[in-house]
Amino acid sequence: MAQLYGREWTKKELLRRIGSLGQVGGVRQFEYSDGASRGLRAAEVRTGSGLSFTILLDRGMDIGSVEFAGCPLNWESSVGFKHPAFFHHNGLDWLNTFGGGLVTTCGLSNVGVPNTDEGRDYGLHGCITACPAENVRVEHNWNGGDMDISVSGTMRETSVFGPNLCLERVIWTRLGEKKIFIEDKVTNESDENSPLMFLYHVNIGWPILDEETSIIIPTRKVTPRDAEAEKDKDNYDVFHSPQMGYKEKVFFHDMAADPAGYVPVAVVNPHIRSLCMGLYIKYLIKELPRFTQWKMLGEKTYVLGIEPGNCGVLGRADERKKGTLKILRPGESQTFHLEIGVISTPEELNQVSDQVNLLLKR
């Protein structure tokens, strides 16, 4: 049954009280109409629990703005959510259209720094985030007493004499819930082996990120990316107010998983005077065995990135050199799943803390 406004409702009870599902939740498709976002297709999802989020249909079906009870969960850059026509995939040009949002998908041919692999140049973090979705489908289905809400579509990263990787994405939630589920399937539709690099770039901003913020993470080992991160290795989980001239720090984590293979990570600020204290993500370590933390506490660019992936962020050539580059054979598929949930009560915070502490004791 749908949990709404302090009680559970059956389908019959709820439909007797409303003329349209849109009164309490559902999906509204729209297009941005101004500036560099003009023409960008999107879908706004409301669950009725206080959770609302925007799916950027023309930006790889990434998740843009997210709110719970009026509290923003994501970071948004000064760039904003630009139409994909402005995207260029050379060097660091990816940053010119990096609007932030809660989830930016990185890949499929490269994740991480620009590099040259087997004579071909790859720009920062790949180009799937700029691929518009086709065959977009919105569904509202009653499943017993639950109302499932989903948006699905297909993106393709392909070129003549190049890869032909198809990403089928389903983003779904449930009426009355405060969780988002992402289900991805990547298929190699070419007749040659194709590398696959994939990472969820989850971007958390103020007010979840602030001086009192904690990251609850089942890390067994922390490795700084470079000399800059080495300076802050012992404080990877310590946050402060924005600082002018701050330089980004990146850490690689060796994560512990529960017996079912799931890894929980939470970012919380219990001092927020609202219903929302933070959020968690959960993923399967067999699908996403690598984890990167991006700590960027500068003025204006004040963001914490939590990034599970099937690769690191040092680029395709580095993965090939280390022998860790994932390969899809012709016709082969790989699936990825990500769960994102709101933490709004002390009980929920204690639950995720207990889960992580238990993993670290194993």
Structure description:
By secondary structure, the protein is mainly beta. It has a single domain, classed as Beta-galactosidase, Chain A, domain 5 (Distorted Sandwich), CATH 2.70.98.10. 9% of the residues lie in helices and 44% in strands. The strands form six sheets. An eight-stranded antiparallel sheet has the order 11-12-13-14-25-21-20-17, with helices on one face. It is globular, with a radius of gyration of 20 Å. The two termini are 36 Å apart.
Secondary structure: elements and pairs:
Layout: E1 2-4, E2 7-9, H1 11-15, E3 26-31, E4 41-46, E5 51-56, E6 62-68, E7 71-72, E8 103-108, E9 115-117, E10 120-122, E11 134-143, E12 146-158, E13 164-174, E14 179-188, E15 194-195, E16 197-204, E17 214-216, E18 219-224, H2 227-230, E19 249-255, E20 262-268, E21 278-284, E22 290-297, E23 302-309, H3 316-322, E24 327-328, E25 333-343, H4 346-361
Antiparallel strand pairs: 1-2, 3-4, 4-5, 5-6, 6-7, 8-16, 9-10, 11-12, 12-13, 13-14, 14-25, 15-24, 16-23, 17-20, 18-19, 19-22, 20-21, 21-25, 22-23
Keywords:
mainly beta; 6-stranded antiparallel beta sheet; 8-stranded antiparallel beta sheet; 4 helices; Beta-galactosidase, Chain A, domain 5; 362 residues
- Our count of helices gives 4
Any guess at the CATH architecture?
A: Distorted Sandwich
Overall residue-averaged pLDDT value = 95
Main beta sheet: 8 strands, antiparallel
Percent strand equals 35-45%
How far is the N terminus from the C terminus? 36 Å
- What's the count of strands? 25
Number of domains: 1
The proportion of residues forming helix, as a percent range, comes to under 10%
Structural class: mainly beta
Major sheet: order of its strands? 11-12-13-14-25-21-20-17
Alpha-carbon Rg, integer: 20 Å
CATH class: Mainly Beta
Residue ranges: pLDDT <50 for 5 or more in a row?
A: none
Overall outline: globular
Order of helices and strands: EEHEEEEEEEEEEEEEEEEHEEEEEHEEH
CATH fold name? Beta-galactosidase, Chain A, domain 5
